[in-house]
Structure formats: structure tokens, C-alpha cells
Structure to design on (492 residues):
């Protein structure tokens, strides 16, 4: 069987799904009232005059989590073919995956001990 | 294995009998299941919004919506209509393009994921080889939209909400993918059809929930976190962040976020039903019922009844899970951000890795029971 058979539906469905927000926003654009004024376009800050903008430099604490996420996400991508083909690969593949996951777990333990998984 | 009803083959064949070439017949067929799936998904959202309001009311000993339609079933439709007629405010300081693009990017992938949700042996938009992996890939597009709208709003609450949404969804993405991988390991295929077929034959005893109890719990927790349901609704925690990334949104753009979150909830429930609860399979083996009723041969009526039963079973299982998610919302408090990250990284991630390796070991030891 051709590897990509059935994927023309993925393309078609992408187009059909894109119609949902396009139609919804166009319908709303035709139907809704539009009254513009400077007051109603101010940034919401619980009723106070907004102080400064939000596009500033500040400490994003999820940075380390994002780095660890990349490592483990690549790991899952590598493991998916292993999981699908596991039936044909047998015991050796299991041991290899054990070593592979073992190395990553050592990395996770290291990050954990170093405090990369702490929210502080 | 009963092949069941195959609408695509029948439809294309009948068009070709009318004299259309095969390619044209297929092109005529293609949009039909897609449109049906999108309309079905939207109706599913309306039903779950109504359920959410009715069940929350019941939990709090209120009546809930009751005036619009019988038992208030049309209340969600009225909500939607109201939002269409609402004015669209874009903050003066916001980035207008990204502000509009955010909700669009959120809503497209969740609808697109319905591509691989099966309701029967052939009742699926397309049975692609990538199957469940398409869903995992698409679900990681959503946080980009959330982050985009949080940043584009140029509002402090929105920015914090968007960042939280991204952090939360990357923290629960990996346990989710690893839980799915244990299922893939047992069925040797990513295709959702193969995953359900692997669970068939023994009725309720053959379902994956008995072989993957830990995986089931991990998956459902991670799925709730991906949907930003209480106890994991930190990105829009109204006591701290007003409405998170949705703060500046109004009208139809807000409606798209709302739609997206409910489509995602129903979709996650459907995926649990497919991966762990036997999909369209009945709790009693079909062969047993056929023997008991004394119907061996397949005829058209039997196939229609079987297909309808399959769709009903899938929806029943999914809506039972939606029901538990709604009850959970009124039962548990919201977690703190450090608790959320701890649960994801220090608990679910190691457990899901162990679950994967244990499944692989069990598959080697007992190939019969674990889909060898």
C-alpha cells in the first residue's frame, strides 16, 4: 500500500476546518455593531488606568521546563517507531529502549537535583 | 471480524454506476464525512455546554437553564447567537493581526483532530497510518495560539495566562504521549481502527483499561490538563488573572476560544473511549449477542443496527467521561502553579516512563494477553 494513502483527506479536512473560524468571523463582522471610541479600546486592568505595557522584559520561569520538554519530546518521537515495530524487534529492542530511557532518566534526575524542576 | 457498513464504497460505487469517473466520484464523496464530522463536533459542543450548565446547577441545587427550549436545551444556541451580535473590541495597544490569528490557530487543530476519531469499522473520516499520532501532533499546535493571543493582547493578565497555558500544556504533553505509546505498543499500530479492533472479542473484559489502568489515569489527568479544566484551569484562573489569555477578547473571537475548549474536552473524552474503553465495542461480545439472537448471516438491516449501536456506544462512553469532568469541576479546588508543574514533571512523567517499560516487559512475557 502507498504510504501516504488517506492523507488527501488530511489536506481536505484542513481546508474544511479552516472554514470554521473564517465563516464565524465573517458572519460576526457582517452582523455586529461597530462603535469605536478611544475609551473602549484601552487595555483592561481591573478598571484602573493601565500602567505601562505588557511587552517588557521579565523573568519567564518556565524557561527551564521548556528546555527539558524539548529533550523529552524528542525522546517520545524516537520511541514511537520503536513502539510500533516492537512486535518484530523483540527482547533486544526492549533492552536498547531500557538503556535509552535510562540515560534520559539520569538526565531527569540530574535536572531534578539541580533544582531545574523547582518553581522558585 | 465483521467488516460492517462501508458507506464510502457504496456511495462511490453508486456514483460510478451513474457514469461518473472514479476520481470525480471520490471528490464528490470527500467533503461529506468532513462536513458531517464538523457539524457533529459543533452539536457535541452545544450538548456538553448544556450538560455543563445543567449539571453545575444540579450540583449547587439550582435549576439551571429552563426557559429556552424544553429543559433549556437551546440555551447554548442562544449564547452562540448572542456572541455573533457582540461588538468586537481590539485594544488600541494590541497587535491586531496576531490578536485575530490567536483564536483561529486554537480552533483549527482541535477540529482537525476529529479526522482520526472512529465511530465504527469504516465510520471514520480517514483511517491514516499515523492515526493517533496526528492527534498528538495537532494538540501541540494549540498552545502556540494561546501564547500568541496572550502576547498580542498587550495586557499583563493575558500575557501571564498565555505563558501559563504554554507551560501547562508542555508539562502534560509528554505523560500524555507516553501513555498513548503504551497503547500503541500493545496494538502494534498507530491507527485508531486497529487500536479498537485489538480490544474487541471479549466484550468489556478485552478493553485496554484492564491492561493499562495506570495509563488510563495518567491519560485522563493529562487530558484534563491539556483542556484546561478545573483542577488545572490556571491559564484562565479568574481570581488571579481575570480571564487569562481571553481577558481582552469579546464577541466571536471569544466564542472561538470557548468553542475550541469544549471541542477539545469532547475530543479528549472520545480519545479515552477509543484508546481505553473499546471505542464502538459493546460491553458484551457481539458474537455472543448474535448467537443468542440466532442471527448468523449479515444483512443490510443488521449492519445499520450495528453501526448505530457502535456510534451510540462511542458517544455514551465519551459523554460519561465528560460528565465526570464536569462533576470534577465542582468537586475539587484549583491547584497552584508549582503543584501543577510538580505533578506533571515529578509524578506523571516518571510514572508514565515506568508504565511504558512495564508494558513492554509484560508484552515480552505474556505476548498473548498484551497483543504480541
Amino acid at each position: 500500500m502507498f504510504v501516504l494513502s488517506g492523507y488527501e483527506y488530511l489536506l481536505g479536512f484542513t481546508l474544511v476546518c479552516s472554514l470554521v473560524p473564517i465563516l464565524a468571523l465573517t458572519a460576526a463582522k457582517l452582523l455586529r455593531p461597530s462603535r469605536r471610541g478611544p475609551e473602549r479600546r484601552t487595555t483592561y486592568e481591573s478598571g484602573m488606568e493601565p500602567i505601562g505595557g505588557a511587552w517588557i522584559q521579565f523573568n519567564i520561569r518556565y524557561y527551564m521546563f521548556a528546555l527539558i520538554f524539548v529533550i523529552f519530546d524528542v525522546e517520545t518521537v524516537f520511541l514511537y517507531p520503536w513502539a510500533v515495530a516492537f512486535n518484530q524487534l523483540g527482547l533486544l529492542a526492549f533492552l536498547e529502549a531500557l538503556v535509552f530511557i535510562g540515560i534520559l532518566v539520569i538526565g531527569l534526575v540530574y535536572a531534578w537535583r539541580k533544582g531545574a524542576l523547582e518553581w522558585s | 471480524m465483521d467488516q460492517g457498513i462501508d458507506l464510502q464504497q457504496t456511495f462511490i460505487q453508486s456514483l460510478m454506476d451513474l457514469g461518473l469517473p472514479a476520481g470525480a466520484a471520490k471528490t464528490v464523496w470527500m467533503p461529506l464525512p468532513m462536513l458531517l464530522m464538523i457539524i457533529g463536533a459543533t452539536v457535541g459542543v452545544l450538548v456538553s455546554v448544556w450538560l455543563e450548565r445543567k449539571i453545575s446547577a444540579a450540583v449547587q441545587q439550582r435549576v439551571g437553564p429552563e426557559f429556552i427550549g424544553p429543559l433549556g436545551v437551546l440555551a447554548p444556541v442562544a449564547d452562540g447567537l448572542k456572541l455573533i451580535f457582540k461588538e468586537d473590541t481590539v485594544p488600541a495597544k494590541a497587535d491586531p493581526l496576531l490578536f485575530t490569528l490567536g483564536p483561529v490557530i486554537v480552533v483549527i487543530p482541535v477540529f482537525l483532530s476529529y479526522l482520526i476519531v472512529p465511530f465504527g469499522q469504516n465510520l471514520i473520516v480517514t483511517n491514516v497510518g499515523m492515526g493517533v499520532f496526528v492527534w498528538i501532533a495537532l494538540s501541540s499546535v494549540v498552545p502556540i495560539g494561546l501564547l500568541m493571543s496572550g502576547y498580542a493582547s498587550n495586557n499583563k493578565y493575558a500575557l501571564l495566562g498565555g505563558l501559563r497555558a504554554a507551560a501547562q500544556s508542555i508539562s502534560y504533553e509528554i505523560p500524555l504521549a507516553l501513555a498513548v505509546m503504551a497503547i500503541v505498543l500493545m496494538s502494534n499500530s498507530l491507527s485508531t481502527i486497529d487500536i479498537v479492533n485489538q480490544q474487541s472479542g471479549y466484550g468489556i473484559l478485552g478493553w485496554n483499561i484492564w491492561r493499562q489502568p495506570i495509563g488510563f489515569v495518567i491519560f485522563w489527568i493529562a487530558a484534563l490538563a491539556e483542556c484546561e479544566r478545573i483542577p488545572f484551569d490556571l491559564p484562565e484562573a479568574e481570581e488571579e488573572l481575570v480571564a487569562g489569555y481571553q481577558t481582552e477578547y469579546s464577541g466571536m473571537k471569544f466564542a472561538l476560544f470557548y468553542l475550541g475548549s469544549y471541542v477539545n474536552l469532547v475530543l479528549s473524552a472520545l480519545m479515552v473511549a477509543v484508546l481505553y474503553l473499546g471505542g464502538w465495542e459493546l460491553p458484551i461480545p457481539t458474537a455472543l449477542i448474535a448467537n443468542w439472537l440466532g442471527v448468523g448471516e449479515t444483512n443490510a438491516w443488521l449492519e445499520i443496527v450495528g453501526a448505530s449501536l457502535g456510534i451510540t456506544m462511542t458517544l455514551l462512553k465519551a459523554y460519561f467521561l465528560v460528565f465526570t469532568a464536569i462533576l470534577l469541576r465542582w468537586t475539587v479546588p484549583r491547584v497552584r502553579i508549582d503543584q501543577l508543574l510538580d505533578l506533571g514533571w515529578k509524578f506523571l512523567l516518571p510514572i508514565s516512563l515506568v508504565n511504558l517499560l512495564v508494558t513492554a516487559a509484560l508484552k515480552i512475557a505474556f505476548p498473548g494477553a498484551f497483543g504480541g
